[in-house]
Each structure stands twice: as structure tokens, then as C-alpha cells.
Write a structure and sequence with these properties.
Blueprint (H helix, E strand, L loop, with lengths): L2 H6 L1 E5 L7 H15 L4 E5 L3 H13 L4 E6 L1 H11 L4 H4 L3 E6 L5 H6 L6 H9 L3 E12 L5 E6 L2 E5 H16 L2 H12 L6 E7 L2 E13 L17 E7 L3 H12 L9 E6 L1 E7 L4 E3 L2 E2 L7 E13 L3
Parallel strand pairs: 1-2, 1-3, 3-4, 4-15
Antiparallel strand pairs: 5-6, 5-15, 7-9, 7-13, 8-9, 8-12, 9-10, 10-11, 12-15, 13-14
Helix pairs in contact: 3-4, 8-9
Length: about 325
């Protein structure tokens, strides 16, 4: 295959949902639509988080300029972290797209892509409408005193939300039901720590108090930063101070119904950078996946217009 042929082909990475038998049928449906639309593509299947980054790297090395992730938020996160390891000139020659196929599809849903309508998604991708989007980045030191960083499309969660998302992912992999796993996670949540001592710097404001959870979003943040957009060079922050149980239940209802910022325990900010000086024992999740708990202070910032993303018509 010559370079011109490769540049016109899609490199598709299929990321199956673990333990879900119906997922194979979904992928066969996607393949059928690609074939019906006469899309030139090659596809490979990932088996793990590590394999997504390896496969993205393989497609880059082999000259594919359009890389499509048939997966969810975690797979997209792996893809952008691989792309960000490349030189800017290489990265700018590549367009990233998504066909939703994950346990969490929040970022693709933000743009209007729906797992239930792969025909429309593929038709939109074929138009190759590109928008440069921002990425958030968390920079921290691990327990071995090594400097680390991780990019995110959607959000960083610190505290209870990271705990719930971890529980939800674990129960979802066992139960196979998003709704059931969500409610079981809420029940299990009652047995976990409900607030954390934190010291944060946001803009010129210093926050030193107990905080239940904080979401820092370049995207919608699973409903916790609903006004965030990945193209304004800013991060939206929602800090939830410790509510009473009845307020907590009310907050969960507002989250489910898309009115999270209306809760009187939620304090929103908009900024380019957040410094976490202290957040003892608080788990940290990046795009729905836990990272090693940072050692000491850490920083979350935004990098403007660094990824070419395929968006709807």
C-alpha cells in the first residue's frame, strides 16, 4: 500500500466492552455500515489499555492520518495520551474520531455521537469536519518521587466522585448493567469516606476546608461540569462541600437530571489552572479511570487546541 492510499484510509481500533456478549454484534453492525458506505479502512482490536496506546502508535508509524476509536472515554483517553507523545508536526497531520462503544461515552455524547446510531456517526465522520480541541493535563509526582502527567478530554475527579466511578466501573464489569451498577455504587458509597481535607488554589482564591468531591472538566465531567467545552482554553471546576444526607440525595437527583450546578452545596469556578496542595486520602480519577494517588501537591491545567478531532456536521 502506497502513502497516498494510506492517507485516504481509516485506521480503526475496536475496543470491546469486557464480558458483554452483545458487544460483538454491535461491532459487526459497525463493520457492515462501513462496508455499505464503501469506507476504506483497516481495523485492529485492542485487548487492554496498554494495547490501545500501542496500536495508536503502530497506526501513526504506518502513516494513517485518520484514526478512529470504536470505544469509550477510557480508550479515547489512551489515544490522546499516545498522540501527545508525538512531535507537534506529526500530531497535527492526524485526525482523531470516535464511534461510541464503551461503558462511558460522555465525551462522544457531548458532540452528539450516539452508540445507538452508528449510521449517523459514520456519515458524520465521512464528512471529515475537523475541530482543534483542548486537553486538560494533570501533573503530579507518584509515590516513587517520579514526575508524571496524564492528559484528559473530559475531567479529573478528586474525592467521592472518583470513588463512585471506580465502584461503578467495577460493578458494571460484573453486572453488565449501567443502571444497576450505578445504584449499587451509590449504596456502597454510604460505607466510604464522605469528605476530605483539602487545600486548593483556584484563580486567586485559596480553599482550605473539608470537601466531598471536586470535578475539574475540560468537557462535561459526567454531568458535574455541564457548561464546560473543550475549545475555550479554560477548565470548569465544581467543588462540593460536605452536605447533609438529605442534601446529598437531592444533589444526586440534580446530577441525574442535568441540573447539578443548581445545588447550593456546589461551588463552580472557571480557570486555566488548579493547584491541589493537599487532598489527604482522596482518590483521583482521570476520564473515569483511577490513577495512582499523587504524592504531595499536584497541578491541573489546560493545553489549548492540541488535538484534531472529527466532529458532527
Amino acid at each position: 500500500m502506497n502513502e497516498q492510499e494510506k492517507n485516504g484510509r481509516w485506521g480503526v481500533i475496536y475496543c470491546p466492552k469486557h464480558r458483554l456478549k452483545s458487544n460483538r454484534k454491535q461491532w459487526l453492525k459497525v463493520q457492515s455500515i462501513l462496508d455499505q458506505r464503501k469506507v476504506n479502512y483497516d481495523f485492529v482490536q485492542s485487548e487492554s489499555s496498554e494495547s490501545v496506546e500501542r496500536l495508536v502508535k503502530m497506526l501513526i508509524v504506518n502513516g494513517y492520518n485518520t484514526i478512529i476509536i470504536a470505544g469509550g472515554d477510557s480508550a479515547l483517553n489512551d489515544a490522546v495520551n499516545c498522540l501527545m507523545k508525538e512531535e507537534r508536526s506529526i500530531r497535527e497531520s492526524i485526525s482523531l474520531g470516535v464511534i461510541p462503544n464503551g461503558g462511558f461515552n460522555d465525551f462522544s455524547r457531548f458532540w452528539g455521537f450516539r452508540e445507538s446510531n452508528p449510521e449517523q456517526t459514520i456519515d458524520w465522520l465521512l464528512k471529515h469536519r475537523v475541530r482543534k480541541i483542548d486537553l486538560g493535563c494533570i501533573r503530579y509526582q507518584n509515590k516513587h518521587q517520579e514526575q508524571c502527567h496524564r492528559y484528559f478530554l473530559n475531567c479529573v475527579n478528586i474525592g467521592l466522585s472518583a470513588d463512585i466511578m471506580n465502584l461503578r466501573r467495577q460493578t458494571h464489569s460484573l453486572l453488565g448493567s449501567k443502571t444497576l451498577s450505578f445504584f449499587i455504587s451509590l449504596i456502597l458509597m454510604l460505607f466510604h469516606r464522605l469528605d476530605y481535607k483539602m487545600h486548593l488554589s483556584i484563580n486567586s482564591e485559596e480553599i482550605k476546608r473539608r470537601v466531598m468531591t471536586i470535578c475539574i472538566g475540560s468537557g462535561p465531567g459526567y454531568g458535574q461540569t455541564p457548561n464546560a467545552v473543550p475549545y475555550n482554553g479554560l477548565l470548569d471546576v465544581s467543588a462540593v462541600y460536605h452536605p447533609e444526607v438529605i442534601q446529598l440525595l437531592g444533589g444526586l437527583w440534580l446530577l441525574i437530571t442535568g441540573r447539578f450546578l443548581n445545588h447550593n452545596c456546589v461551588h463552580p469556578f472557571r480557570t486555566q489552572e488548579v493547584t491541589v496542595h493537599e487532598a489527604k486520602h482522596a482518590l483521583v480519577g482521570v476520564d473515569g479511570r483511577l490513577i495512582q494517588t499523587p504524592s504531595g501537591s499536584y497541578r491541573i491545567e489546560v493545553e489549548k487546541e492540541v488535538i484534531n478531532f472529527l466532529i458532527p456536521d
